[in-house]
Design brief:
Order of helices and strands of chain A: EEEEEEEEEEE
Helix content of chain A: under 10%
Distance between the termini of chain A: 38 Å
Number of strands of chain A: 11
Distance between the termini of chain B: 37 Å
Shape of chain B: globular
Oligomer: heterodimer
Mean pLDDT of chain A: 94
Number of helices of chain B: 0
Number of helices of chain A: 0
Mean pLDDT of chain B: 95
């Protein structure tokens, strides 16, 4: 049973546009919500993460928005660049499960020139 | 600082065989976890080790096992391989107290 649901499965954005990926979770014990970026042939790399005590976190062109009451969080990539083309995974972990991450199924992002 | 190192990077096995994969975490990281990545199921948690003890285990059959050594290096073993075990097996390490996992490039297992 998928504990974290991610959408869309794939996304095409023009260079300079905003890429938005959404995730939803059910387990209220989750208290850590990271986003990972994966390029072909590479392992996932942490992009940005948030905890539920804040509603938004920004790092450069990447922003996480977090809605605790709706149990949803999203990744916004501003000014998307062709180099951002990759697969993005949201994840969640929480109390009682150590650092075990529950991943969404991923979003394949293509940024066109 | 060297990243997480996984060996071998690629391997091909036949059904019924067993396989052992190795992971060397980032120096100073004592927590190691393993994930299976497939196109259909995505990234799924296998197990997590800290100080040579399995701290957490995912929902995989007993054919999947692992261990951690005193130098924090870890191995995972899959016995009686099935076609469905074909996947990218990823190892990650982290500093205890932080959830920031650093992943290796994975071991790609093909079962024929």
């Amino acid at each position: 049973q998928q504990q974290v649901k991610q959408s869309p499965q794939s996304l095409i954005v023009q260079k300079g546009g905003i890429s938005i990926i959404n995730c939803a979770y059910e387990n209220t014990a989750f208290d850590y919500f990271p986003w990972y970026q994966q390029f072909p042939g590479k392992g996932p790399a942490l992009l940005i993460a948030i905890r539920p005590d804040v509603s938004e976190k920004k790092e450069g062109r990447f922003t996480i928005s977090f809605n605790k009451s709706a149990k949803q969080f999203s990744l916004h990539i501003m000014d998307s660049q062709p180099g951002d083309s990759a697969t993005y995974f949201c994840a969640a972990s929480g109390r009682g499960s150590g650092y075990a991450l529950n991943f969404g199924k991923g979003t394949s992002l293509l940024v066109t020139p | 600082k060297a990243g997480v190192t996984q060996t071998p990077r690629y391997l091909i096995k036949t059904r019924g065989q067993q396989v052992t994969l190795s992971c060397s975490p980032i120096s100073g990281h004592r927590s190691v976890s393993w994930y299976q990545q497939t196109p259909g199921q995505g990234l799924q948690f296998l197990f997590e080790y800290f100080s040579e003890t399995q701290r957490n285990k995912g929902n995989f059959p007993g054919r999947f096992s692992g261990r951690q050594f005193s130098n924090s290096r870890s191995e995972m073993n899959v016995s009686t391989l099935e076609l469905g075990d074909s996947a990218l097996y990823l190892c990650a390490s982290n500093v205890e107290g932080t959830g920031e996992l650093f992943f290796g490039e994975g071991s790609r297992l093909t079962v024929l």
